[in-house]
Specification:
The chain has about 220 residues and is α/β, with parallel strands linked by helices. It folds into 2 domains: about 140 residues, HAD superfamily/HAD-like (Rossmann fold), CATH 3.40.50.1000; about 70 residues. Helices cover about 45% and strands about 15% of the residues. The strands form 2 sheets. It has a 6-stranded parallel beta sheet with strand order 5-4-1-6-7-8, with helices on both faces. Strands 2-3 form a two-stranded antiparallel sheet. Helix 8 links the parallel strand 6 and strand 7. The mean pLDDT is about 90.
């Protein structure tokens, strides 16, 4: 991690990092579990279990992919989740912090495992597109990984890797940042617990305001 923390470009994760959707995700997963007579999750258990690739998360919950396909479950999940997006909120201070950092000359992009079209729709729903030079999602609903998209994006960016910071909320975000050759910090208010994020040995924060303060240094 750079001691001076003077980054020129921030790559943000979307779900859990800027979009506070954990409650909605748990609600949707519990609908899928109930349909299959599997025990429900609390938010705390969800944050301890969720991981990438998502198919492994479902397997741990008891989904039987010899009886049904992961693809069908992924589509079922997304159909329900899309209905929940209007009920989600942004993490506290998102708009103000993006504005403040942009005024200091920092640029921003989004790198997400969310479907590209749905990502763009969600960003537009919350009136945030103006702050990002690019929105990068996946072309399917299976949420396998965003590593390859990340590698491609860092090749396209007009910044040295040491000037770019990835901000996420899951261990996979750290894996993506490592694959891109850039620094990473994580938020504990998203999809994975503080204990899991602490195991990565990176700087973690409880809020976007703390991230903004870190970037002031």
């Amino acid at each position: 991690m750079k001691k001076e923390k003077s980054y020129k470009h921030l790559i943000w994760d979307w779900n859990g990092t800027l979009l506070d959707d954990v409650g909605q995700c748990v609600k949707v997963v519990n609908v899928l579990l109930a349909k299959r007579d599997l025990p429900p999750l609390t938010v705390e258990k969800y944050r301890e279990q969720i991981d990438f690739p998502i198919i492994n998360f479902y397997r741990r919950l008891g989904f039987d992919f010899t009886a049904e396909s992961y693809e069908s479950v992924a589509h079922e999940y997304m159909k329900l989740y899309i209905r929940q997006v209007p009920q989600c909120r942004l993490q506290k201070g998102t708009g103000k912090i993006l504005t403040r950092l942009t005024r200091r000359g920092i640029t921003h992009s989004l790198l997400s495992a969310y479907h590209q079209q749905r990502l763009e729709e969600a960003v537009d729903h919350f009136h945030l597109r103006q702050w990002f030079i690019k929105l990068i999602g996946l072309n399917d609903y299976y949420a396998h990984s965003k590593i390859e998209n990340g590698r491609q994006w860092i090749r396209e960016l007009q910044y040295d890797s040491q000037d770019v910071l990835f901000i996420g909320d899951m261990c996979h975000d750290y894996e993506v940042a490592q694959a891109m050759g850039i620094d990473c910090v994580a938020l504990t208010c998203g999809h994975q617990s503080r204990d899991r994020l602490s195991s990565l040995g990176i700087t973690i924060f409880d809020s976007l305001e703390e991230v903004a303060g870190f970037l002031k240094s």
